[in-house]
Amino acid sequence: MTDGFDTLLAHDADIVDGPVVPPIVQTSLFAFDSFEALQRAFTGEAARPIYSRGVNPTVHAFETKLAQLEGAAAARGFASGMGAISAAVLSQVRAGERVVCVRHVYPDTYRFLTRLLPRLGIAVTFVDGTDPDQVAHALDGARLLYLESPTSLVFERHDLAALAALARAAGVTTIADNSWASPIFQRPLELGVDLVVHSASKYLGGHSDVVAGVVAGDAERLGLIEHLTYPFLGAKLSPFDAWLLLRGMRTLAMRMARHRASGLAVARWLAGRAAVTKVYHPAIVEGSSGGAPSADPPASGLFSIELAERVDIAAFCNALSLFRLGVSWGGHESLVFPAKIGLMQAGNDNALHDFGVSPRLVRLNIGLEAADDLIRDLEHALRTAGGG
Ligand SMILES: *Cc1c(COP(=O)(O)O)cnc(C)c1O
What's this model's pTM, rounded to 2 decimal places? Predict the structure, then answer.
């Protein structure tokens, strides 16, 4: 599964001759020796960076690598996953048009779609991504289909190829959030999706030290982003953050293999506990991918469980010592996030509430620690919280 990527991941584009690590080109602008040289850069005759809100060589090295990983013609880095998502969506829709989005989408994507788009005269319809008939019906007259598979928190898995084909037949552009699987386990463009977006803050960075995003796709759609949203919304990726991403991505394939193995081991152990009433793991849930679970499924290290009524969720979280409490995921460290807390978040458009996420749900991010140690930690916490 991860074969073939290791070599690509180990090498970066040469910005200057010599250094095996691309330098952080920490500059706002690039100066020119002559009027003519400046003119050639402005007319596009010579491909030279002008200003770092446009092109920066360190950022470009990250964009090139990500485009290669996703099998895309081009990619654009952003200051955050939301920067990438908002720029991608706003580049493809106009006032009077409608976006169709799968339910259980990432909570801030949900807020962006429900809070900001209506102010711009863009309507949004949410659909059950596991029901192709419902999606097909909603696509009639729509402009954009926004996908995320597996989804956030409940990890509902969708047939991206089938949904992309429905959209294509209806003349609807597709965008897929691929943060969970990373390009190691899923490449949406190969499945017929038009644009892929990532929160690079998660697995691409992998070390919980950077907030960043990226969009990848074909030259024409990337061109719209390039000319309409990237320069004016201004959520550019910084050279240092791009450097951290390049550094993190060198071990992406290795990390994903480890997250997958440990995630499956912990999820399977939890599935055997009486106090765990449900496991939301797209690779081990029977039928979630339209068939029996395979012995060696592609998976990452993020999944959820539901705990029986008798388990005190606060006590469970507090009794953990290796797992820390926090949002975000995809780093080296194991984390838990209780939906009970997410449901309390202020604001009248709460995705967890609106999509009906159970307050008994706890999301686990399995980091790079030894799986046996994590299982011991969970066993102890379950016992302490009344679920032993
Ligand atoms: C975190 C996340 C985002 C948002 O990314 P940021 O880098 O935090 O802006 C988008 N999609 C998914 C699935 C996420 O988990």
Answer: 0.95
